[in-house]
Design goal:
Blueprint: H1 3-68, H2 73-87, H3 97-104, H4 108-118, H5 124-142, H6 148-154, H7 160-171, H8 175-183
Helix pairs in contact: 5-6, 5-8
Length: about 190
């Protein structure tokens, strides 16, 4: 190898070192920029999430306020019937008065006062229980192949015995006797 070739190779090595240093510097700048963009994206996502939560809470509060402001108790009772018919929430055994109040957007205190003063049912619990009983009676009439346990579960009762007591209270008969009235000709 000649001295000229060695100098050319050394010059090429220096040029490659300079390019390498420039590329490393550029890579550090890009990684730093990506980190900043990533942090900004995380902030934007978090702000968007908070905005959506706030929007949902505002909608719920507006609905709750609108329903709480209903002066006509009849309208509120009609709203209860409408929401329960629409959602069928009362058929869930865990559905309770707290969830009923949330469903129509009023406080439990307002709900209890409404039933105490304006309903033939003295409590929201009695109202929910009555809806479950009506559903069970309908199923006893229309679903002869369903077991009493299946009807109890489908109607929102936690226990078959509760269904049996409710049917007995309403009709004076056991669920099986009540069903037999409607299925003799089938």
């Amino acid at each position: 190898m000649t001295e000229q070739e060695i100098k050319e190779m050394q010059a090429e090595i220096e040029r490659l070192r300079a390019d390498n240093a420039r590329l490393q510097s550029e890579m550090i700048r890009l990684v730093s920029r990506n980190l900043n963009l990533s942090e900004q994206l995380e902030v934007d996502v978090e702000l968007h999430r908070r905005f959506e939560v706030a929007r949902t809470l505002m909608k719920e509060n507006i609905e709750r306020q609108r329903n709480a402001d209903l002066q006509d108790d009849g309208q509120l009772l009609a709203l209860i019937d409408l929401r329960l018919e629409e959602k069928r929430s009362h058929l869930n055994p865990d559905f309770d008065t707290k969830q009923l109040a949330e469903l129509i957007g009023v406080s439990q205190e307002r709900l209890n006062k409404l039933f105490r003063n304006k309903s033939i049912y003295r409590t929201p619990e009695a109202y929910i229980d009555n809806l479950r009983t009506i559903n069970a009676m309908r199923l006893l009439r229309t679903q002869p192949n369903y077991s009493i346990a299946a009807i109890s579960e489908a109607s929102g009762f936690n226990h078959v015995r509760t269904l049996q007591r409710r049917i007995m209270d309403v009709t004076g008969m056991t669920p099986a006797d009540y069903r037999a009235l409607f299925t003799r000709d089938m």
